[in-house]
Amino acid sequence: MIRIVAGLALRDCLYDRRLFICFAAAFAAVLAPLLVIYGLKFGVVEHLVGTLRDDPRNREIVGAGNHNFDAAWFARMAARADVAFVIPRTRALWATGFLEKPGAVAGRSVTAELIPTADGDPLLGPLAAQVGPRAIVLSQAASRRLGVDAGETVNFWVVRDGAAGRERVDLPVTVAAVASAAAFARDGAFVSLELLTAVEDWRDGRGVPALGWAGEIRNGARLYANYRLFARTIFDVSRLEADLQREGLEVRTRSAEIEAIVALDRNLSLVFVVVAVIAMSGYALSLAASLWANVERKRRELSVIRLLGVPRRAARVFPIVQGVLIAAVGLTGALALYAAAATLINNLYASDYLEGAELCRLLPAHVASAAAGSLAVGAIASLLASLRVVRIDPAEGLRDE
Amino acid sequence: MADDVVRLEGVLRLRRNGAGAFAVRIEKLDLAAGGAYAAAGPSGCGKSTLLDILALALRPDRAERFVLEPAGGREAIDIAAAWADGSDAILGRIRRRHIGYVLQTGGLLPFVTVADNIALPARLNARSDRARLIALAERLGIVDQLAKYPADLSVGQRQRAAIARALIHRPSIVLADEPTAALDPEAAEIVMTLLVEQTRRDGATLVVATHDHIRAQRHALVPISFAPVRIGGAPGSSVALAPHGQSAEAAGAVP
Questions:
Q1: What is the largest CA-CA distance in chain A?
Q2: B 82-101 residues with CB < 8 A to A
Q3: Which residue of A has its CA nearest to B171?
Q4: Which residues 6+ apart lie within 8 Å of B23 measured at CB?
Q5: First CA to last CA across chain A, in angstroms?
């Protein structure tokens, strides 16, 4: 029964197609600009967020000063869901070493900052796995200064001024890889935590039996002055920052830039929602009026349908089917207009402005919600007309008024 | 002898309009299966009210007995009880199964073809009989019009299509409200002839509301008479079946 009424409603649209195409065109005219505006907002914000996200340094939380962090503190940080990577770091002043290519002219040595690394280091990516007790990853600057490439061996040494005067220990290490220029700009070497700890211990006057470096042996829990810490995503940075500040730690992050983009996204979304709600409710009202008018115009026919034995609950489907059909056709038109506009915008601007990224784009999920929203607007707009149909008396169909 | 198809007894309906109240009382009205009746009289005599009540489109204020006995010995349907129950779905089901309607200007749906208009009551009863549709269209001389839309037909052709639509689902009773009022005399005669012939051929009971006694008489329709009375202080009409052979005038229906 409902199928028959729905069929009649569709046939009515087909018969009066010029009128219904106008309704659908009006729907497309309202929806298409909304899709383009949202596509632009999404494209621009996505590009900005993407730029931030692609650079792991935006996720880094840099600790200032020297503190005493114990193993429990690092375990606690590593366990947090919003932490992607954390590793202890020794005092910055002691975290340097000399590197030299074997056989090179004396004086061609390089002072490198030592950066502890391990599996999962966002700055190194897959290269981090190649770092070991005797294997390091050089920064690009250091690699160039030393004139060594991946696979070569370099001599590493550190010095200390002890009671016995200046002392030096040497360690030949393999250059497992050279990091990308973006990972570290200065002369640096990514080393295992074990090696970094050995350097600090030895320069503090202690011995490192594993490497045969002499000195006094002290027992007790190892504390670290600092850390390297990366948040899981750029949106986790400000929370981590706040938590660390609450512990009385001074940190530096790029959270301000991230916050700026989050705020931009929020404000643009708000503007969009306001515009969309005003536009769609205006259209929904006009569609509701049109469907109501159509029911009034088709009152005789609808009462005949009722007279022929169609019960109220089936008859009220008539305007709903028409409302949803108008929305569906309008949506199709709007998507076509959007596709044309987006192609045009992307061809005109994207190559210069966004390094090839699409300025105007929508995800399938956005299209799906636009579709669901449109059909809902069509259905809601038809409710009033539907209530009108329910009140049509079959007796009206019996005679001409 | 034909069985009765519709029995009304003690049915009362009060109608309010701009001029005040108007009541129609049906003391006893038994319509025989296969019979052809004319509710003839000027406007305001109560024939529209009678037709609306028979069409299950107007709720009687009181009904001691209102029964429809479908053809084929099926169980009688208590319409008074259905109204008392007030279920739109039940009344709708009785209308679509047992009643056919021919309206003044056809009442065809303009947005579907003539064939689809005729087929609609059958489809609403979940039956589709293409062969019967063609046969009815042939009997009514509108086979060539089936693929057209109602707007492309003459008024006379539309009335023939309406007759086909009223008969397609083999109803027990066919109600026709002024089916020839919009037609020129020649077309009116043809349509009335077809209406009477085809309903009789299908064995359905026919009730025609018309203001044209002469035509009703010529087609041997049994008159239903309306006598002016006062009902509860209000002006009204009393409905009765005129004895066979008597005209509406003879029954004293027209003031």
A1: 121
A2: 88-89, 92-97, 99, 101
A3: A308
A4: B12, B13, B14, B15, B231, B232, B234, B235, B236, B237
A5: 28
pLDDT of residue A156: 94
> What does the alpha-carbon distance between residue A315 and residue A306 come to, in Å, rounded to a whole number?
7
Give yes or no for residue B249 having a pLDDT over 60: no
What CA–CA distance (Å, rounded) separates A222 from B86?
Answer: 88
Please report the domains of chain B, with CATH numbers, ordered by start residue: 4-241 (3.40.50.300)
B121 HSE (CA, 13 A, CB side): 32
For residue A44, CA distances in Å to A38, A40, A355, B211, B229 come to 10, 6, 12, 76, 83
Q: Do B107 and A15 touch (CB under 8 A)?
A: no
Distance CA B92, CA A85 (A): 72
- Model confidence over A73-95: pLDDT tens digits? 999 999 999 999 999 999 988 89
Say whether pLDDT at B131 is over 60. Answer: yes
Show Cβ contacts of residue A278 under 8 Å, excluding neighbours closer than 6 positions: none
Take residue A338 and report the two structure tokens written for it.
Answer: 């959007």
Put simply, the answer to whether A398 touches B103 (Cβ < 8 Å) is yes
Transcribe chain B into DSSP letters: -PPEEEEEEEEEEEEEETTEEEEEEEEEEEEETT-EEEEE--TTSSHHHHHHHHTT-S--SEEEEEEE--TTTPPPEEHHHHHHHT-HHHHHHHHHHHEEEEBTTBT--TTS-HHHHHHHHHHHTT---HHHHHHHHHHTT-GGGTTS-GGGS-HHHHHHHHHHHHHTT--SEEEEESTTTTS-HHHHHHHHHHHHHHHHHTT-EEEEEES-HHHHHHTTPEEEEEEEEEETTEEEEEEEEPPTT--TTTTT---
Per-residue pLDDT band for A354 (boundaries 50, 70, 90) equals: low
In tens, the pLDDT along B157-199 reads 999 999 999 999 999 999 998 898 888 888 889 999 999 998 9
- What ipTM was reported for this prediction? 0.88
Q: Does pLDDT of B253 surpass 50?
A: no
Q: Would you put residue A381 in left (φ > 0), alpha (ψ -120 to 50) or beta? A: alpha
Which range (A18-27, A93-102, A211-220, B58-67) has the least confidence? A211-220
Is the distance from CB of A201 to CB of A150 less than 8 angstroms?
no
Spatial separation of the C-alpha atoms in residues A244 and A358, rounded to whole Å? 37
Average pLDDT over residues A51-70: 89
Interchain contact B107–A (C-beta under 8 A): yes
Stretch 318-377 of chain A: residues touching chain B, C-beta under 8 Å? none
Q: Which residues contact B110 (CB under 8 A, 6 or more apart)?
A: A15, A301, B149, B150, B151
